Amino acid sequence: MTSLTHIATPDGVAPGVNYSHVVWGTGRFVALSGQCALDEKGAVVGEGDPVAQAHQVFENLRRCLEAAGATFDDVIKMTVFVTDIALLPAIREARDAHLTNGRLPATSAVQVAALFRPELLMEIEAFAVVADR
């Protein structure tokens, strides 16, 4: 069984409202490559629509986690890359629809000049800890 500990506010650090400051766990470490709003055929989903893209990104993350024997409950860290930091509310909406246990991973958000295709608005990578097989 995986054991995760979420620490929301270490001494001297402002509270994290939309993330945990620290998450640690015991088990097998899983790294997920950055996921974008691409479907199974490589076509962009939701061109120009940050909400649709965010939901596709989280669906792709879910599929990757499932392939590793994990779920969003096992995610300890996410890094969000966006072409416009104003897109974070759309990403939070999709995240909250997929991460439903109320325990958010440690998270970083970075605005970037571009992603590998100009139609893409965001990319998210994740790390998880799952029980040893």
Written description of the protein model:
The protein has helices at residues 50-67, 88-98; strands at 3-7, 22-26, 28-35, 75-82, 106-111, 122-130. Helix 1 runs parallel beside helix 2 (88-98). The model has no long low-confidence stretch (mean pLDDT 89). By secondary structure, the chain is α+β, with helices and mostly antiparallel strands. It has a 4-stranded mixed sheet. Helix 2 (88-98) links the parallel strand 4 (75-82) and strand 5 (106-111). It has a single domain, classed as 60s Ribosomal Protein L30, Chain: A, CATH 3.30.1330.40. Helix content is 22%, strand content 31%. The longest helix is centred in the middle third of the chain and has 18 residues, at 50-67.
Concise overview:
The chain is of the alpha+beta class. It has two helices and six strands; from the N terminus they run βββαβαββ.
Task: Based on the model shown, name its key terms.
133 residues, alpha+beta, 60s Ribosomal Protein L30, Chain: A, four-stranded mixed sheet, 31% strand
Based on secondary structure, the structural category is alpha+beta
Helix fraction by DSSP (H/I, runs of at least 4):
10-25%
Largest sheet descriptor: 4 strands, mixed
- The tally of strands reads 6
Beta fraction: 25-35%
How many individual domains? 1
SSE succession: EEEHEHEE
Give the count of helical stretches. Answer: 2
From the spread of the alpha carbons, the general shape counts as globular
Query: What strand line-up does the widest sheet have?
Result: 3-6-4-5
The third-level CATH topology is 60s Ribosomal Protein L30, Chain: A
Overall radius of gyration: 15 Å
What is the CATH architecture assignment?
A: 2-Layer Sandwich
Low-pLDDT residue intervals, each spanning 5 or more residues:
none
How confident is the prediction overall: mean pLDDT?
89
| The CATH superfamily title | RutC-like
Measured distance between first and last alpha carbons? 9 Å
The first-level CATH class name: Alpha Beta
